[in-house]
Amino acid sequence: MALQLDIVTPEKKIFSDTVENVYLPGADGELGILPEHAGLVTALKAGELHYQYQGSRVTLAIGSGFAEVSQKKVVVLTDSALGEAEIDEAAAEAAIKRAEEQLASMGHDADAEDIAHLQSIIAQAAAALHFKRRTRH
Amino acid sequence: MANLRDIRRRIKSVKNTAQITRAMQLVAAAKMKKAQDQALAGRDYAQQLNGVLQDISEQFAEATHPLLEKREGNRELVLVISTDKGLCGPLNTNLARKLRDQTSPEADYVTIGRKLRITLEKLSRHIVADFTIKDPVPFADARAVAKLVSKLFLEGKYDKVSIAYTKFVNTLSQQPEVVQLLPVETPTGYADATDTNEFLFEPSTEDVLGAILPLYVNFKVFQALVDARASEHSARMVAMKAATDNAKKFIKELTLEYNKLRQSAITAELLEITTAMKAME
């Protein structure tokens, strides 16, 4: 029983193949998806995505986005998806710092969308950092 | 008959032109590669996004979102994406023609790119806003544009928002296009759509639509921008290559003419000398 998994970001297609299962960081908590899952569209928050591919477990740190699940297929659309090796700790820390500075300098009249955008950058970088540090220790 | 010095001067000036067009060709080629990569990279994402929207479109009727609202009026806002610089073949002319054919003359405009902004100003059309976008296109710039047009649409100032841009097909072919941006039309005819027609929404239908639709609008603007950029650099590269080739051909012809003239001048001079010698004998 196979499940087709597609992970795409605006920059490139990250992954497209059949996998055994997928774990998604849903907006309300982690979701485990097996083949023949009921149709589902869910918002994703920044976090870790796991899937079982050719017998081994793969983990990616993803940004916010959403996923569409149908019986044989899972489509993940996200801002970014990084494997452990691709995460640059210094860059992630710098991104958090930059975004936090920008947040702090914004007044009360700041646009809600801009704030949400900065917060998603922070969440994304923090998730990537967390994942990188956990795998190293 | 043109004299030798005139021809020499013309050869020199054509050579200079060829050098400039060649330099521009090389610059455009380098930029073209980057812009094309960017345009093509987003295609997968765009396709999947369309697929997802098509799949869930059947449930739109139950949960309407303001960005989906179809209105009776016909006040139209057109986002026109042209180029800042010229020398890119018929790109802007074709886009202007398409714009004239497919949008109402009473429409208002948001412009990106100097060329068509000037054209529209000459026609005294009403321009609401003008943006300058960096090269390569940053996603944040697309967000700013999308935010403005969404705001104008949601405030009820306009009933319809379209984008006019040049779609990138390949290096030799670019297609001017006018597509509707708002209200969001659910895509159809996407072959890869799954046959599942019942979807659960998590956390809720409103939340999911609230997340997907603005993203879709942002991304569509972004994709139009990168397509327009890729088209611009491709068209400029091709136009400059044609200009360089023409100049080279012209130089060849002029050199041939120059040599012929030079030879006939020498022949005439020899004839004069020999005639003079004969006369002195």
Automatic annotation (TrEMBL), chain A:
F-type ATPases have 2 components, CF(1) - the catalytic core - and CF(0) - the membrane proton channel. CF(1) has five subunits: alpha(3), beta(3), gamma(1), delta(1), epsilon(1). CF(0) has three main subunits: a, b and c. Residues 3-81 form the ATP synthase F1 complex delta/epsilon subunit N-terminal domain. Keywords: ATP synthesis, Cell membrane, CF(1), Hydrogen ion transport, Ion transport, Membrane, Transport. Produces ATP from ADP in the presence of a proton gradient across the membrane. PANTHER family: ATP SYNTHASE DELTA/EPSILON CHAIN (PTHR13822), ATP SYNTHASE EPSILON CHAIN, CHLOROPLASTIC (PTHR13822:SF10). This is ATP synthase epsilon chain. It is a peripheral membrane protein. InterPro entries: ATP_synth_F1_dsu/esu (IPR001469), ATP_synth_F1_dsu/esu_N (IPR020546), ATPsynth_dsu/esu_N (IPR036771). It comes from Luteolibacter pohnpeiensis. The keyword Hydrolase does not apply. CDD domains: F1-ATPase_delta. It is found in: Cell membrane; Endomembrane system. GO terms for cellular component: endomembrane system; plasma membrane; proton-transporting ATP synthase complex. Its main location: membrane. Belongs to the ATPase epsilon chain family. Transmembrane segments: none annotated. One of its GO terms (molecular function) is ATP binding.
Automatic annotation (TrEMBL), chain B:
Keywords: ATP synthesis, Cell membrane, CF(1), Hydrogen ion transport, Ion transport, Membrane, Transport. Pfam families: ATP-synt (PF00231). It is a peripheral membrane protein. It comes from the Bacteria. GO terms for molecular function: ATP binding; proton-transporting ATP synthase activity, rotational mechanism. InterPro entries: ATP_synth_F1_ATPase_gsu, ATP_synth_F1_gsu. The gene is atpG. This is ATP synthase gamma chain. Its main location: membrane. It comes from Luteolibacter pohnpeiensis.
